Amino acid sequence: MERVNMSQQKHEQLSAFMDGEHADQDLIKQISQDGALHGNWQRYHLVRATLRNELPPQIQLDIATSVAAALEHEPVILAPNKSRWQQLPLVGNVIPMVKNVGQLAIAASVAVAVVFAVQQYNQPVEIQPGNDGLGFGMGVQGGMSPVSLEQTQTVPVANQYELLEQRRRINALLIDHHQQMRLKQLQMQSQQGEVVELEPEQETPQQ
Amino acid sequence: MKWLIGALSFFYISAASAADVDSETDARQWLGNMAQAMQSLNYDMSLVILQPGGTVEPYRWRHGVIDGKTVEHLSMLNGPGRDVVRVDNVVSYFEPNVPAFSIHSTSINGPISGTLLRNPSALTASYDFVLVGRSRVAGRATQQIRIISRDKSRYGYSLWLDQETSLPLKLDMLDSQGKVLEQVQITSVAVTVNAEESLQNVDVANLPEVLIANPAAANAHRWYAGWLPDGMEEIMRDRHRLPVTGAPVDYLLLSDGLIDVSVYVQPVGDATTGEQAFRVGSDTYFSTQIGQLTVTIVGKLPPQTANRIAQSLVVKVP
């Protein structure tokens, strides 16, 4: 039970170490010495690389071992063993470069996509003949916006004359509303009884 | 453990409701101070009325107390101009295309409701006032107050009052989603010891003649609204002809102190329009057909409320 917990803990530490969240010398030592952890370390990296789609075109699964082997051979044989190019320490440098190129390619393609999209959005709006923006909504009066009442219907207006008539009627009501608001004090007084005559042309001023 | 949570939540709730009461009283206190300031200070304000997607109207608003007389001048700065001058309880309107006239009133029907500015306690039947927080408006420290329709049938407002003078510096009208429908924004304000010079030069003796109304009761119609939002009342009723078209209408003016709502009843003409609802600036225009009648409602109220008022209209025989 204790051992299971121990190894569980080590795996967690290893995982944290890979994410760059946990770094102490003990762990590094353990990883380099403990074969099981060592194997995990490699597998985790492989999984991560696969998930991130960063695998190099040629997969050399056991780079670390081959590098170690190469290093072991090095002091003995002064010239590097060139029988398998993958065994060269250089490979360790090439792989990150491949990775970087891949990332660069992704970044570049995103940038292209953004530039493309911006161009799309900035296309000047084509002006359709007959659509000058004035035929908005019910076309009653500039500055009117339909409100969000569900029953609202756009009433088809048969012809220009009827549209003008409708506009006139609506304008009349709006003007009257504002006049009545102004005259309300006057009317309220009249209801309270301070009453005399009113000149009608002043009550409904001519427009 | 449970009893502890219970006790804590009890304290929390009682503290919260106590805070609500405080907030309500404080808000009324603030509004009382505002009403006092509006009538006693000498001020000169520039303000704009903004309607998102609509127009911007700049105004200048001056008020002064000169030898015990209050003089107020509201002037629209764009276009042909519109001036309203009040000397004590006479309000004179000077507008293009209309002969100048005066009426008896204690307030100018301006960008902000006169009832809100002078007698805010009259609005408590319709609205709740809640103290919100402090912020900065027009370069000054302000206290924000929310004005909320009690029955949610009208738009809500946010009012910002100057902490130093209690003068209003901003008023937003908001729909139920919190979208701003109209903003009154004071852009500069100067409070002075003496009234502004032009106010002192108002020719009090030569104001236009005061208009006095005739009793309209003689030919009053018998339309009544069966349902009205809380605190809204019928202010007047008559039968008159519309400007421009000259069409006769049966007319009702409703008000809750903050907003005025006009109700028009007309016979359906040859052109049937069905139901229409749209916004003109911050006014809602709502029109519907009920039987052989067209009922039109205009005012700063949600179209749903307008519809409800329209549907509730009944004829009453006295």
Automatic annotation (TrEMBL), chain A:
Predominant location: membrane
What membrane topology was assigned to this protein in its record?
Single-pass membrane protein
Can you give the residue ranges of the Anti sigma-E protein RseA C-terminal domain?
A: 141-183
Keywords of the record, alphabetical order, are: Cell inner membrane, Cell membrane, Membrane, Transmembrane, Transmembrane helix
* Annotated compartments: Cell inner membrane; Cell membrane
* Entries under Pfam families matching the protein: RseA_C, RseA_N
Q: What are the residue boundaries of the Anti sigma-E protein RseA N-terminal domain, all occurrences included?
A: 11-84
State the SUPFAM superfamilies in the record.
N-terminal, cytoplasmic domain of anti-sigmaE factor RseA
Could you name the domain of life of the organism this protein comes from? Bacteria
What is its biological role?
An anti-sigma factor for extracytoplasmic function (ECF) sigma factor sigma-E (RpoE). ECF sigma factors are held in an inactive form by an anti-sigma factor until released by regulated intramembrane proteolysis (RIP). RIP occurs when an extracytoplasmic signal triggers a concerted proteolytic cascade to transmit information and elicit cellular responses.
* Assembly description: Interacts 1:1 with ECF RNA polymerase sigma-E (RpoE); this inhibits the interaction of sigma-E with the RNA polymerase catalytic core and leads to a decreased expression of sigma-E-regulated genes. Interacts with RseB.
Which PANTHER family does the protein's record reference? ANTI-SIGMA-E FACTOR RSEA, PTHR38104
Q: Family, per the entry? A: Belongs to the RseA family.
What name is this protein filed under?
Answer: Anti-sigma-E factor RseA
Q: Which organism is it from?
A: Pseudobowmanella zhangzhouensis
> What lineage is this protein's organism placed in?
Bacteria, Pseudomonadati, Pseudomonadota, Gammaproteobacteria, Alteromonadales
UniProtKB/TrEMBL annotation, chain B:
Q: Which residues form the MucB/RseB N-terminal domain?
A: 26-196
Keywords, alphabetical: Periplasm, Signal
Q: Where is the MucB/RseB C-terminal domain?
A: 219-313
UniProt cross-references to InterPro entries, sorted A to Z: MucB/RseB_C, MucB/RseB_C_sf, MucB/RseB_N, MucB_RseB
**Where is the signal peptide, in residue numbers?**
1-18
- Where is the protein localized? Periplasm
CDD domains on file? RseB
Homology family: Belongs to the RseB family.
Q: What is this protein called?
A: MucB/RseB C-terminal domain-containing protein
